[in-house]
Amino acid sequence: MNSIVMRENINTMIEHSDFAPENSIISAKNVDVFYGEKQALFNMNLDVVENSVTALIGPSGCGKSTLLRCFNRMNDVIPICHVEGSITLGGQDIHASNVDVVSLRQKVGMVFQKPNPFPKSIYDNIAYGPRIHGMTTSKAELDEVVEKSLKRAGLWDEVKDRLDKLGTGLSGGQQQRLCIARAIAVQPKVILMDEPCSALDPIATATVEELIDELRERFTIIIVTHSMQQAARVSMHTAFFHLGNLVEYGATSDIFTAPKDERTQNYITGRIG
Amino acid sequence: MQQRNSQTINVTRNATGQKTREILVLALLLVCSLVAVLTTIGIVASLAFEAFRFFQEVSLFDFLFGLEWSPQTALRSDQVGSSGSFGAIPLITGTLLISAIAMAIATPLGLLSAIYLAEYASDGARSVIKPLLELLAGIPTVVYGFFAALVIAPMLRNSGENVGLVISSESALAAGLTMGIMIVPLVSSLSDDVINAVPQSLRDASYALGSTQAETIKQVVLPAAIPGIAGSLLLAASRAIGETMIVVMAAGLAANLTANPFEAVTTVTVQIVTLLTGDQEFDSAKTLSAFALGLLLFIITLCMNVAALKIVDRYKE
Ligand SMILES: Nc1ncnc2c1ncn2[C@@H]1O[C@H](COP(=O)(O)OP(=O)(O)O)[C@@H](O)[C@H]1O
Ligand SMILES: [Mg+2]
């Protein structure tokens, strides 16, 4: 009896890893990730839909952050980390020798778990990326980028009178929106968010969630979250991970109302976590 | 009810015992810190007192702004103090000249090696280089002193001769260079700590925006580390100003008023040493001038420390 259930799970698992949306922007194929000897991700296959919000959920340590960091090659920064398999962005292999990690990261921005504004002015925080990439030619143009990014991040009205004040002096929620604005300022295609609200209070969380909803129109967002409610609220697609495996991937409504895998069901009902 | 009462009493008794112990420990700690504070006050007071006696014989103005330093002439009993030359300016400029040379060497060397150690060096390289640098800090200054006098100074003089420069065998340059090498570990090890203390999350933020490692170091890590780096530089500078042995051996005793690093100069500390070594009467202007110099040195380093704190505070905001 038990083994039959198990076999069924494996079948549905394979079926759902094959979820292959037409309009995918990022596509991971047979990705394995190792930290030294230890394997953190196993044969990962995932297609991320363009201009939507995709949530990565699963118990802590299951490899969500690791996968997220594959997409902008932030794992390169970790010396012992080693990635195998193919990841494409808009059809282009991001590990190809002609790919410049600098321009990859311009296309694929990242927002971290703990707000990490630079200890610089609000203005300089936003202007950092555009300056690095030489995206503007005049001060006026840069001013415009800063204003537009802060407006998109819903922070403009709160900070427009103190752009020269330190970004680190803002409240936690404002800092996180500043970090989002900073990421937006380099005009990425994709924004990766690693538990962006886990250090925020409920009100700041609600503001950031609203923001994510608005950003969806222009950007593809991949968000790691440990909050199932958050995944349900903000995402169109959800991928559930367990022990380094992608267990189930599909429309968020399906995952939450009719999970096919027992592990997914256990997780979303709070039995494993 | 009864039981609860006795429990309450027990609790109170324990608390009282603990309190007495805490007070005792507190008193002990207070006494220890008072010893340090009182010693400092004592030193400053004696400096001030002896300096005051000196200023009864030599005017403060002459001391601070006089351009000539030759305390030997004042030793003759028939012309005590007033006719001797106690102008501290040559000593101050000598001190500043040597310290400036030392800082000009130690700042780039120390800072760049700190950046290399903190950001680029592999763990293997780091585990070799760091102890070696710290070894440099463990060399007694007198060893640096004779290294400067016997190796650096002749080398400088010879190479100067080859290109037609006159470099005296005791020169500010020889002392400054050696002192610069001596304080490199101070700068590098403090700056290394400071750079390492910059949160990884800031580097990650910068990398995630597409900056290279060099951009990240220049635009994020160093600006965030500046207060600490400024602190380590000021510490190194005050170490240079207070340094004696190297200067005694390599820079000479001649109180020349010059900005030429190829000439012999002398420093405040060297003069204090020469004034007070050997048998001295403690009421001659010559000996007393050492206290005035000491007080001057103390005030200079105090100002530097205050400035350092101010800088650090301003950047902290
Ligand atoms: N820098 C690292 N060095 C070594 N192991 C790591 C590192 N980062 C993550 N891991 C390991 O990889 C696994 C997945 O981690 P992570 O991707 O952070 O999980 P999640 O984000 O889902 O909590 C964990 O077992 C973790 O211990
Ligand atoms: Mg994580």
Share of β-strand residues of chain A: 15-25%
The total count of helices of chain B amounts to 11
Number of domains of chain B: 2
* Broad structural category of chain B: mainly alpha
Q: Into which percentage range does the β-strand content of chain B fall?
A: under 5%
The description of the largest β-sheet of chain A is: 6 strands, mixed
Oligomer: heterodimer
Shape descriptor of chain A reads globular
By CATH, the architecture of the largest domain in chain B is named: Orthogonal Bundle
Give a quick account of the main beta sheet of chain B: strands, pairing sense, barrel closure. Answer: 2 strands, antiparallel
The name of the CATH superfamily of the largest domain in chain B reads MetI-like
> What's the overall average pLDDT of chain B, rounded?
85
Can I get a quick summary?
The complex is a heterodimer of chains A (273) and B (317). Chain A contains 11 helices and 10 strands.
What would you say this structure looks like, in words?
The complex is a heterodimer of chains A (273) and B (317). Chain A has 273 residues and is α/β, with parallel strands linked by helices. Chain A has a domain at 1-94 and 228-273: Rossmann fold, CATH 3.40.50.300. Chain A is built from eleven helices and ten strands. Chain A has helices at residues 2-17, 64-71, 101-107, 122-132, 139-152, 156-159, 172-184, 202-215, 228-234, 252-257, 262-268, and strands at residues 24-35, 38-49, 53-57, 81-89, 92-93, 108-111, 190-194, 220-224, 237-242, 245-251. Chain A has a six-stranded mixed β-sheet, with helices on both faces. A four-stranded antiparallel β-sheet of chain A has the order 2-1-4-5, covered by helices on one side. Chain A is globular and about 55 Å long. Chain B folds into two domains: 2-56; 85-316, MetI-like (MetI-like fold, Orthogonal Bundle). Chain B has a two-stranded antiparallel ribbon. The complex binds adenosine-5'-diphosphate and magnesium ion. Adenosine-5'-diphosphate binds at residues 35, 40, 58, 60-66, 78, 80 of chain A.
